[in-house]
Amino acid sequence: MSSMTLPEIARKLREIDFCMMSTHGGSAAITNRPMSNNGDVDYDGDSWFFSFEDTNKVAEIRRDPQVSLAFTEAPSLLGKPGIFISIEGEARISKDKAEFADHWVPDLERWFTQGVDTPGLVLIQVRGKRVQYWDGEENGTIPL
Questions:
Q1: Which pTM does this prediction carry?
Q2: Of 96, 94, 81, 103, which Cα lies nearest the Cα of 37?
Q3: Which regions in the chain score pLDDT beneath 70?
Q4: 3-class DSSP assignment, residue 40
Q5: CA Rg value for the chain
Q6: 91 to each of 15, 71, 107, 110, how far by Cα in Å?
Q7: pLDDT on residue 100
Q8: Secondary structure element (H or E) that encloses residue 7, with its range
């Protein structure tokens, strides 16, 4: 039984900008890459990531939408380990500019210079199915 709630997990996720996104690559390999959640964490089970369409991760998601996200928080100043959060879910690729606008933040222009009109831009939605966490003192699982 988990003692943390989904809103508590969301507060932790807001503090962690980058995660590792794992997809199913070719030959049954697992492929990992860092992704920014862009501070877009009103966590109800969905995570949002912008990408260019012509990437291996997008091709892999189209082949097999099952993904995982791994977040880790730095240790506290007193040395307590930070929280580790793993989210298993299903990814969806969107080309909908209205969805882009809903999740866009100005810092993204560093990578996508034409904003939501950047050619080849897609939005990856990961709908979480299960959240697991470990914080050095307790752990738990939250089914979504």
A1: 0.89
A2: 103
A3: 1-2, 39-43
A4: coil
A5: 16
A6: 22, 17, 23, 24
A7: 94
A8: helix 6-14
